[in-house]
Amino acid sequence: MQTLLPLKTPAKSKAKAATPVFDALGIWSLSVGFSAVAMAAIAYFTAGDKTGAAFVLVGAALVVALMLRASDPPAD
Asked: What is the 3-state secondary structure (H, E, C) of 3-54?
């Protein structure tokens, strides 16, 4: 009876170092938030428009919330 030799196993590859992932969506949402605050401040302090400033802030928060809801969750 023939004796079968074990199959050669492939060489194991070296583990790669984890590369940090750049979170562009976080930066984008911060920039939209800061821009909304600046626009609301202009509307409030130049024209005294409290309602317009509130609409600017709520609108920007809604846009950011919709984009965060539509985006893919981050991979761990």
From this structure: CCCCCCCCCCCCCCCCCCCCCHHHHHHHHHHHHHHHHHHHHHHHHCCHHHHH
Return the residue matching tokens 């965060």.
Answer: 68
Sign, Cα dihedral of 42, 43, 49, 51: negative
- pTM summary value: 0.66
pLDDT digits (tens, 9 = 90+) for 3-51: 877 777 777 777 777 777 777 888 999 999 999 999 999 999 999 999 9
- In the chain, where are the structural domains located? 24-70
Please report which helix (H) or strand (E) contains residue 65, including its range.
helix 50-70
